[in-house]
Amino acid sequence: MEVAIAEGLAPGMRRYAMYLPLYNGVEQLEIGVDASATFEPIAPRVKSTIVFYGTSIMHGACASRPGMAIPAILGRRLELPVVNLGFSGNGRMEPEVAVLLSELEPAAFVVDCVPNMNAEMITARAGTLVRLLREARPETPVLLVEDRAYTSTPFFPRRGAGHRANRRALRETYDQLRAEMPDHIFYLAGDDLMGSDGEGATDGSHPSDLGMMRYADAYEPALRAMLGKF
Questions:
Q1: Which CATH superfamily is domain 50-227 in?
Q2: Contact 111/76 with Cβ under 8 angstroms?
Q3: What is the pLDDT of residues 54-96, one digit of tens each?
């Protein structure tokens, strides 16, 4: 399939970023320009990446386009490369994944898996995951993130109880880890990840573009503090 992305552009040199599909694989991609135009690749960035490990929310459901996924927004704002390891229906802090993550050398790890977990799983796995990361990368900051609240939580008390249990389990693990290793471990609360007006989600759970922007707004100051980017 051949698609014209832009026609009649004003003259001038520009930098473009291309985001590949979030859910469809790409087997072949070619980019063509007018014969009178200049098209040059930009040298790869040498800055360290931020690794985002999470669920379908981190993956990008339900962004309207790939560039509106949370890591993509933050990559633009912070001017850093990002690695999106959001796994739809998964991302549950498995120790096997922690071992694989430990092979990477990022500027920071972000762990946002709680939406796909319960309190028992968090208590059993969160500490192990961070300890494995810390053993391999003792100076790399790790950000633990609470779950966002379902936008329908006010109408379903059981969901509210689940959020409170999950957050309590994560906070207790974080406090234990801070007692063991006080440096380079950070925490982000979930109350403001999608806002409090109920407008940030498509299905009560997955962010819309508005919700993705709100997530990024909550993440950005935490990441800047971790990375020393003020």
A1: SGNH hydrolase (3.40.50.1110)
A2: no
A3: 999 999 999 999 999 999 999 999 999 999 999 999 999 999 9
